[in-house]
Amino acid sequence: MGLIRAVFDATFRQGGARLKPVGPRWPLLLFHVDTGGCGGCGMELQALATGPYDAQGAGFGFVQSPRAADVLLVTGAVTRSMMPVLEATWQAMPTPKGLICVGNCAVDGGMFTENYAVMGGLDRKVQIDLRIPGCPPSPHDVLEGLFSLFGKRLEENASAGQDEGVGSSSTSS
Amino acid sequence: MDPVAHIRAGAETGTPWRFRLEELAWRDLVDGLKQEALPFVGLWCDGTDVHVLFLPHGNQPLAATLALEDGRYPALSPARAVSSLYERMVFDLYGAEAMWARDVRPLVDHDVWTSTTPLASMPGPAGGHKGMIAYQPSEAFLAAEGLAAGIGPATGRTGAPMHVALTLAGETIVGAETVTGYAHRGMALRWRNSRVDEACRLSGRVAAGCSAAHQVAFCQAIETACGEQIGHEVSQLRVVLLELERCVQHLYTLAALAQEAGAVLVASRCMWFREQLLKEAAPILGSRLLMDHCVPGGVSLRSASDVGDLCTRLAELGEENYSALSELWRGYPGLSARLAGIGILDRAALERLGLDGPVARAAGGDSDCRRDMRMYDGLWRFTAGRHGGSVDDRTAVLLDEVGESLRMLADLAPRLGLTAGGRIDLSYQDGEGIGMAEGPWGRVLYWVRLLNGRVEHVFLRDPSYPALMAFETVLPGQNVADVALIKASLGVNAAAQDG
User: Fold this and answer.
1) Which of residues 22-81 of A touch B (CB under 8 A)?
2) Is the pLDDT of residue B474 over 60?
């Protein structure tokens, strides 16, 4: 019984805001690397990926290999042990590619400034395409940041998506 | 020999439960520990002394101190296996050598830091290694024959970075070893001589998902060091933070496990429920991951007087969703079958490694530090659950604990009423204190020494230490496809472990 109910609400997701893809190419594939931090930003990314935010519907997907990725999502303060790993990941990605820093740590080290083991963020070290600040940024902030890549706002898109959803359901019924 | 009496026979120090031993007495202690089951908490160094902490009765601490002689001390790892991780950490940070240690490989220093032994009075020269860090396998691992494989540190998953080196025979794991240190941020150095509020913020960033537990334990340690005690109402607000954290963190873990086991639907239901809880809680408490709400002397919440109502609403949400989720989990085709029988931890391993928290409870161990805590009076109750020790049993225990935490939140609602929260002003005197909390994965314990109004030294015991050892112990004989499941179910957290 529980299963049937769950299948139904996955199929006819009521209540959750339905989003419309914003990117020119769909979907935009993201590869996440934690470079050493508390892991909070990673948890919020996981919430975005599996929680009720409809990141897939908005045209963002998470992949498990850098070879399939368009964008590298970096969280954490970049420890000296992780820097070569980050570089190798970047090299493995096909061009064109982009780099997004999620959370204060990845941008400038945040609470974890430079010391013997930590490089303290990527700011002024490499070219960053987008910075999503916060400690940690909420899934909503991250999604809004990703939307800004295409010059769109999350609210606009959500309302557009919902209108469309209502329209299509009325025509089909 | 009774190790408790043996430690108490040492010279008294400024702290009533810490005694200074001579080197020979320390060696006798190690010998005595081989026969006696005194619960070991951790071992740390402050540059001149090395300290070891035990919990002989409930939450009563007992510590022994030994002055380093030529930068050496007799190791505890021959008597307590998990001590080997602490010894390796002490060597990497201070250069203090553990004599007769079981394992002397580097733990977090992989020769890429700007100085070796960075916390010693005279830090060493910079590591000369360039590029990917080199891994030094143990002899036992080298002896295992088979195909070499590795997982991590960049897997595309969201956990903290670590590497698992494997030797395989077909699909079965023959040998397994972890390489940690990727997430080492130098917490010990950052804590050293930091301001108290700054140190508290840092303790919330040791491991996300356990922030409230870390900060409650840290604040208690500071309060004990100052000889102060917080009021009952404030401690109840802290219980709300701890139980809510347990609830959302367990749901997060369950979602990760379900996802890994291929039950995507169950995973999304868990995450959906978690988001519902957070949507209610975040506006009233002030953040989603419960960071920085517990401060020395009290709590800092966006609107403390609404927390009573919040608990009622969380309990209502629990009533609406929990039983359906639990039913879905138990009835979902193939999910329990996928998890059953893998990653089995037996009682012997449990006791040898000193595991606690839900991992121990799922293997028949009875350890929960909430039992002896005054702030849980009338709230905590003993619940018997599954105790087969497999991944399936652990998920069942996690699921039960979500229900228990929701029940506690429901019980807390009428007690809190319109509590104002607030904080008392502490005057920071020189001294030492200890504080602990039952985090989502077990006991989180802080030892803090205050000097001149600042935090001079911090020792942290997190369940991730024994969890890492349990992970290495349990892997041989398992299928390589189950590594991620076993890792998630044991609460292995490189961020907390690397420090």
Assistant:
1) 31-47, 49-52, 62-66, 76-77, 79-81
2) yes
Q: Determine whether the interchain pair B271/A50 forms a contact, defined as Cβ–Cβ distance below 8 Å.
A: yes
**If you count residue pairs, one on A and one on B, with CB atoms under 8 Å apart, how many are there?**
175
Structural domain boundaries in chain B: 3-99, 187-463
**B341-393 residue pLDDT tens:** 999 998 888 888 989 999 999 998 888 899 999 999 999 988 888 889 999 99
The domains of chain A are located at 19-147
- List beta partners, residue A118: A79
Q: pLDDT value at position A161?
A: 47
Of the candidates A50, A115, A136, the beta carbon closest to that of B186 is on: A115
Mutate to test the interface with B, among A46, A53, A75, A81 (most CBs of B within 10 A): A81
Residues 455 through 484 of chain B touching chain A, CB cutoff 8 Å: none
Q: Which CATH architecture has domain A19-147?
A: 3-Layer(aba) Sandwich (3.40)
Residues of chain A with pLDDT under 70: 1-25, 155-173
The answer to whether the Cβ–Cβ distance between B182 and A2 falls below 8 Å is no
Helix ranges, A12-116 (H)? 40-50, 83-92, 104-108
Facing B132 at nearest CB: one of A33, A52, A85: A85
Residues of chain B above pLDDT 90, percent? 83
The answer to whether ipTM exceeds 0.90 is yes
Q: Chain A partners of B185 at a C-beta cutoff of 8 Å? A: 36-37, 77, 79, 112, 115, 117-118
Specify the CATH number for B3-99; select among 3.90.1300.10, 1.10.10.10, 3.30.460.80, 3.40.50.2000.
3.30.460.80
Does A126 reach chain B within 8 Å, measured CB to CB? no
Nearest-CA distance A90 → chain B (Å)? 11
Q: Determine, for residues A64 and B181 on separate chains, whether the beta-carbon distance falls below 8 Å.
A: no
B187-463 CATH: 1.10.645.10
Chain A contact present for B499, CB below 8 A: no
Task: Please indicate whether, in this complex, the C-beta atoms of A39 and B207 are within 8 angstroms of each other.
Answer: yes
